[in-house]
User: What shape does this take?
Amino acid sequence: MDEVDLLILGAGPAGMAAAAEAAGAGLVVALLDEQARPGGQIYRDVTAVPPARAAILGPEYRAGRPLAEGLADPRIRHIPGATAWKIDPDRTIAYSVDGKAALIRGRRLLIASGALERPVPIPGWTLPGVMTAGAAQILLKQSGILPRRAVIAGSGPLLYLIAAQMVRAGTPPLALVETQTRGDLLAALPHLPGAIRGWRSMAKGLGWIAELKRAGVPRHRGARDLAVDGAGRAEALALTAGGRRRTIPCETVLLHEGVVPNIQATRLLGLPHRWDQAQRCFVPRHDRWGETPLPGIHVAGDGAGIGGALVAELSGRLVGLCAAAALGRLDPVERDRRAAPLFRTLARERAVRPFLDAAYPPGPQTLSPADGTIVCRCEEVTAGEIRRHARLGCKGPNQAKAFGRAGMGPCQGRFCGLAVTAILAEANGQSPDETGYFRIRPPIKPVTLAEIAAMAPTGPDKDSA
Amino acid sequence: MDAEYAIIGGGVVGLSLAWGLSKRGHRVLVLDGSDGGFRASRGNFGLVWVQSKGLTEPAYARWSQRSAAAWAGFAAELGEATGRDLALRQEGGYDFHLDEAELEAKVRLFQGLRARLGGDYPFEVLGHNALKREEPKIGPKVAGAILHHQDGHVNPLRLLQALAADVRRMGGRVLTGQVVTDVAGGDGFAMTCADGTRHCAAKVVLAAGLGAMDLGPKLGFAAPIRPQRGQVLITEKLPKLMNRPSGIIRQVDEGGVQIGDSKEEVGFDDSVTLEVAATIAARAVAIYPALARAQLVRSWGALRIMSPDGLPIYQQSPTMPGAYLVTCHSGITLAAAHARFLPAWLDDAADAPDLEVFSERRFALS
Assistant: This one.
């Protein structure tokens, strides 16, 4: 088995920064990532993107380039195209590259698997022609492709960024439909003074909104009762705004209600999580160095709580310093000296979060979908069925999964997990913490039986393999 | 009194009893534990299985056969009441062997049991070619199989859900999130739960799986049970690959192929290990080579509830009459017997089955 000082899962800003910091202190680092090139979702393909596309994507995207180039350090082994499917508390990861499985172990382990877009279960969301706004952005980053005649709907700053990128690319969205309300904005106002410390982020957001205004993109705010209409594929987005029901004909609906930590890996490890009411998601418990209650296992980046790319980078650096000190490569005093400015910048970058979280909450349809709406796409389980399971005594998602298969499909609840917990919590009058989450089991990504069988100590197939 | 019978444990064993007792007109209260508890009812393999049960104790083989024979009627009645198809198929099941000598040794054991059962043990031995006619997808390394005609399988999760729904429909109270931490006798029985709630009933049935290890002694039982881990893999949904289940591979009604099973003495550790997953995956691929390309979507570890001899324990408390211990590692196979026959034993009715051989006293004697 391979063994390294610091094993990192995820080559986004947190993973790349941790790798650079740790390698700089002399640690041997391995960086596992699913993609062919480093960058994560936020800086996807940043090392390979043509200049014209980089211009569309903007300066906040291009900022990822130096980070990705930092992986050139000979002490860093970047393992691209790697799907991690089993992670053990002893810091061993089983992963596959090109259909071949292998094991690697770290003396320290960093889980930096980032965020997922929160699924937006509205009627018709499983129709062809509906995708997440983030998926559309990945298409742009990777292939320079953008959907035409698209409506973009939901809430959150990323919505503005993607809409602005569509404008720059010459394919502006037909409309921007926002689910957040004036009430949400009022609730966010008390956080505004704090947010001023993070004025750079705020200024960026206002800039994107101005770009959309100049381009004449119609904006519908406080939208309710969203539904995708269409026979066999998306043909229109229906919504109610300003007291009026309207239908916007389109070919594509891009949905986005913010991002949430991808907790499959940390749940698989059995780490404790807590419900973050402001961000309406579970986050793994960790200290200020990203260390979890499992010794030597860290989290950083959006997977440790949504903070965005800069917060991810800073938290990754801190893990790199902490790992170097823990392994005796960095004097603790020196660690603290290097960490102090990082902690200060981190506090400033995080200052804008409470305002954003309050101003752009996921809409009521996302938090409590209508009975007829599918929640678990893999097994086609509706919100109404989950509520029926609650009436049959299901207090938590694991019994509900046994009763109705929600979360049993290939994604293992990665997409429906939060919705199932939220629906059960509401139906049972419990908190999300009391309700709990799916018990996540390996493989966290599908793997073939042949790949697993090849790892048998003495399998009957060994001789013919 | 909240109920005539309180049943501690809302898994398949407890709910099967609650269902049967409800049918006999009793008011039942089922106290079910937490969402995250060890639950064999969620982790089991879904077999309604006769072969290999009671190889050294024919009474257990007979009890399993009696339950298997009652399953069709039980599934039909439960399915009709709840509108759920339990996907019961009892068209026989295999014991695959990759090794001729192992197959022959197993056949001799089966022959011995058949003799002790007076011939009522319908199995046949299929060599590779005969097996290939039944299961065209088997691989070249399979030496043969024992086909036992009383075996079958069911969707155990639909069974669990149907029981939970039908016990309620019949007026039974099923309370979930009720982790019983203490139970005391006196005038009836009083149960205290972790959240402080209390319940009482005239009689109590301890059907709490591994929870009986703690609660059993409070009611005067030895409850000599232990966890035994089994690991299970399940693939993506596949087109039909096999006609009948085996003890280690079956295709579930939704299409996934389920692969087991390990027997590990690791205490209360229900995690999965790469070594075991790889070993059972390799064995499954040797039997059905097409599985090599199948995606594994999930694996899990579940804890069997094992007695020292592997047989069920049915015992009335010697010191606290009215308290019963019901525990077994084959809650799916025995669900029909527990629903149809065991309630009469709890009621001490004339048609009660003779369960003396399953008493806890057998362990004291040995």
User: Anything to note?
Assistant: Chain B has three domains: 3-79+156-224+308-365, 93-149, 226-306. DSSP finds eleven helices and 17 strands in chain B. The radius of gyration of chain B is 20 Å. The mean pLDDT of chain B is 96.
